Amino acid sequence: MRYLVLALAVWLGTFVSAQAQTVQDILQVHADEIAKPSRRSVSVALDDLVASGLPQVPVFLEQWSARNVWQRDDGQFFIGDADGDDLALTDIDTGAASFALKSEFTQIRPNGGVRRVIGTALVQFQLSDPDLGRRETAVASIARRPEAAQLAPLLASIEGEPDAALKARKVQLANFLSARFADDPADRIAAINSLSSDTSVEARSVLNQILTTEPGVSASEPEGNIARVLDPMIDPDGFYAQLVEAELAPSRTPPDVIRAALEANVVEGRVGDVPVAQLGTDQMREAAYAQLADAGLVASLVTVSDRDAAIAAHVFFETYDEADPTITAAAEAALASVEQRVAFAQAADLALDGLSLASIYFLAAIGLAITFGVMGVINMAHGEFIMMGAYTGYVVQLFIPDYTLSIIVALPLAFAITFGAGVSMERLVIRHLYHRPLETLLATFGISIALQQLAKNIFGTQARPLTSPGWLDGAWVISDVIQISYIRIAIFILALLFLALILYVLKRTRLGLEVRAVTQNPGMAASMGINPDRINMLTFGLGSGIAGIAGVAIGLYAKVTSEMGTDYIVQSFMTVVVGGVGNVWGTLLGASMIGFLQKGIEWLNPSNTLAAQTYMILFIILFIQFRPKGIIALKGRAAAD
Amino acid sequence: MQNTFIARNPSVLWFLAALGLFTAIVTLMSEATGVGLISTSFVKTLGKTLCLCLIAIAMDVVWGYCGILSLGHFAFFGIGGYAIGMWLMYARTEAIVVPNLMAQTIPPTPQEISDAIGNQIFGVVGSSEFPMIWGFADSLFLQLLMVVLVPGLLALVFGWLAFRSRVTGVYLSILTQAMTLALALYLFQNDSGLRGNNGLSGLQNIPGFEDTPQATISIVFFLASAFALAAGYVFFAWIVSGKMGSVVKGIRDNEARVRFLGYHVESYKLFIFTITAIVAGIAGALYYPQAGIINPGEIAPIASIYLAVWVAIGGRGRLYGAVIGAAFVSLLSSWFTGGGAPPINLGFYTIQWTDWWLVLLGVSFVAVTLFFPKGIGGLFDYLVRKQP
């Protein structure tokens, strides 16, 4: 019997102790912190809840965070769902449902700060949640707001992660976290070193956060993990302001304060013994102010030499927030290596940008180069042919709503229309002006302003969209630094296609042979039975047609307006002039040079694209001095004029 | 000498007589004399037109006589305008700001005056410091010198570089166009020191003459423009009619042959290019006080092309042709775009001239180039020669 009683007592005891480990019990221990939670006090309760390892804890935390936890008048906590005056209750531990009157309960309303703390505690449960979406959300929330406490649960969850991609992401994130928060310095340095080849924005921000510094000033040798000691003479006023802020020196008296003090102390037309009329120089003002200071009316003046003496008496430095110098040194080294890689990547990105700009210029200029080379005629209306091509694309899209199909229709149609326009312009105007090249320039300019105004009258002044097909949206992202939009890749491919096509036409067809003959010597070509008139007409049409296609391509990424031609015409001229007339390769070289140059100058001075264009044009003007006939100049008689 | 010069250029006398008559009529009819048949704003338009005629003559000399199709002469015009505009703006702001500062208890320091003026002028581009190029803005004499020197020097350097490496023909045209584009783009920046695309404004208010009515000021500028045009006409007529004129025309017709004859072609071209740039600068300095505002848009490449259009329509190679072309086209243009021309109703469509004027101009320009290469001036020649 005694044994029985003892056994019962033991059994009961275990039962009671097991009972003590319900969520409700833990909550009762911390009832005050739970009922009126604050960001500081709530963490004790959370630690106990998490440490209990009970399966109901994450559910409770979620409901708590969602403000669904209610406290009964007797202090017991329930998960509740308010419905009018009634409250559908769920027991926190057993899940048993019941109903009660709402008036007996108080809702627990944790504020935003508390909910964030709860969220952090929840993350470790979510990291091992069976649902992939929830795990991803948890990982993303860690990435957004990394904290030291998340490192351990994150590391623990890596082992059991079934999804390969998420596992890799977790490993990466754990690496970032341990670089910043790991307890053992050796672990941190290892993590930091592993970041030295990671050019992602995230890794760089991790390193930068390790390396955050605070400015400091002291009269003696500085202490702590010093990042660098600064030379105050580069900006004496700024450093003196720092001294003033640290209350190590009296503040300086700016001119307007001096002025105000003088104005306030004018006595019978004098300040001190200086007549007001003489206060028109800084020197006299300071002298008068010094008298006021001597009389004790104002605080004394801090002169430049006072300022310099004060600066010289102090050491200005920056300290790392991180106390361990080995870690900051490792991070500095890692960051330097990362930045070198980033610089390479940026150079590659810049080269891609330059390449895409070059292909645009090539498309815009190649038509011009052909007509100029063959006929010695500058077509100022070339830009308007680009515009006509772009508007053709726009009109086609009005009739064909499918963007892919409309582009496929628009490209040949734009070619046909501008080919026609070019041929008729050649027949009607240019043919009569072959002996007067400068006048061709003016006549084609007349056509250009007429066409521009016509387009304005027909399509209005506002920009029209030329929408690219969906598969050209977005960009090809190679890394955080290197990316290029698909439209630009498409334009690059288009430019390559046209390069090949034009080379084929010029080098492999009868027409090309005749065109080259006329380019070199029209008179001789004519006597060989080639009809220069026909060749001129066809070349002009071809050049104009390519401008039309370039217009569709340019319209895809820039707005279609009646003035878009003028944006490209000068660059096209430059391309032709720099590259050399009458040579496809010359145009290619010219376009590449101008494209890369423009991007390069923009990179040197990113805030100011206008200045970039100015410098580029100046460069071209100088370039022409040294190679007046362009990079690839025609030789022999054809080069005469 | 004078006698022979006039004898060689009978058109000079005719031109001076016509200009004098025109000036006298406009002055008498203006509001300044109390008659008021011609409004002040129209006097300003006429004065501006005279300045455009002056730069058109310069363009005619460089293109019609020397064969250099410069598409950048409006840059020099704009520089002249900016140079005088800097003084006008500085002096006027000073006249407003300084009395304010003087009225305070304590006299201002030079630094305070400069800050206050700078703040007034450069506040729109978020700065109050005077850039280097404003160093002479307080002196009318030095700024007037700038009107001549800056365009002259720019043309000298640019022309020397271009002519030295034998850049000719279409290449040179494109290069001059690039120059004016580069200048315009540079001025468009806010940190160019010339107020970015705001430009300089309030130039119609002449410092020191705040109490003089605009009617009088406009007539003074009109007369000054007329005088400058007359002087420019005589000067250029003298240049192109002497021995030098013959060489210059020779260069236009066959540069290689003139070089073979032993002339240093580059020097002649450089002289013509520079002297016309200086005249363009003077024309600009007279134009913008009448216009009241100058901004970088004024020197965009299109402006210089219009200049070539005027000269071509007026008739190249004859100075009066340039004057006729500039006056005719620019006045016609402001008549059409100003809504002066009545719209034409075609029943199915109404032609609004504000929309269609540029189309008309473009097409007529093509027509002139194709069918009347001598322009309106050519018509003149035809009529004069027909008379016994």
Task: Give an overview in words.
The complex is a heterodimer of chains A (641) and B (388). With 641 residues, chain A is an alpha+beta fold. In chain A, 64% of the residues lie in helices and 8% in strands. Chain A has four domains: 2-115, no CATH class; 127-212; 215-320, no CATH class; 342-639, ABC transporter involved in vitamin B12 uptake, BtuC (Orthogonal Bundle). Chain A has helices at residues 2-20, 23-29, 31-35, 42-52, 56-65, 112-126, 132-144, 151-159, 164-181, 185-194, 201-210, 236-245, 255-264, 282-294, 304-312, 325-375, 382-399, 403-428, 437-459, 486-508, 510-520, 522-527, 532-557, 564-579, 584-604, 609-626; strands spanning 69-72, 77-83, 86-90, 97-101, 105-107, 213-218, 226-230, 270-271, 274-275, 315-320, 475-477, 483-485. In chain A, the strands form four sheets. Chain A has a five-stranded antiparallel beta sheet with strand order 4-3-2-1-5. Chain A has a three-stranded antiparallel beta sheet with strand order 6-10-7, covered by helices on one side. In chain A, a hairpin with a 6-residue loop joins strand 3 (86-90) and strand 4. In chain A, helix 6 (112-126) crosses helix 7 and helix 18 packs antiparallel against helix 23 (532-557). Chain B has one domain (2-340, 350-386). In chain B, the strands form two sheets. Chain B has a two-stranded antiparallel ribbon with strand order 1-2. Chains A and B meet through helix 13, helix 19, helix 24 and helix 26 of A and helix 5, helix 6, helix 7, helix 12 and helix 14 of B.
Task: Give the topology, please.
The complex is a heterodimer of chains A (641) and B (388).
Chain A: H1 2-20, H2 23-29, H3 31-35, H4 42-52, H5 56-65, E1 69-72, E2 77-83, E3 86-90, E4 97-101, E5 105-107, H6 112-126, H7 132-144, H8 151-159, H9 164-181, H10 185-194, H11 201-210, E6 213-218, E7 226-230, H12 236-245, H13 255-264, E8 270-271, E9 274-275, H14 282-294, H15 304-312, E10 315-320, H16 325-375, H17 382-399, H18 403-428, H19 437-459, E11 475-477, E12 483-485, H20 486-508, H21 510-520, H22 522-527, H23 532-557, H24 564-579, H25 584-604, H26 609-626
Antiparallel strand pairs in A: 1-2, 1-5, 2-3, 3-4, 6-10, 7-10, 8-9, 11-12
Chain B: H1 2-8, H2 10-29, H3 40-65, H4 73-102, H5 110-122, H6 140-164, H7 169-188, E1 200-201, H8 214-241, H9 243-253, H10 255-260, H11 265-291, E2 293-294, H12 301-314, H13 319-337, E3 344-345, E4 350-351, H14 353-371, H15 375-386
Antiparallel strand pairs in B: 1-2, 3-4
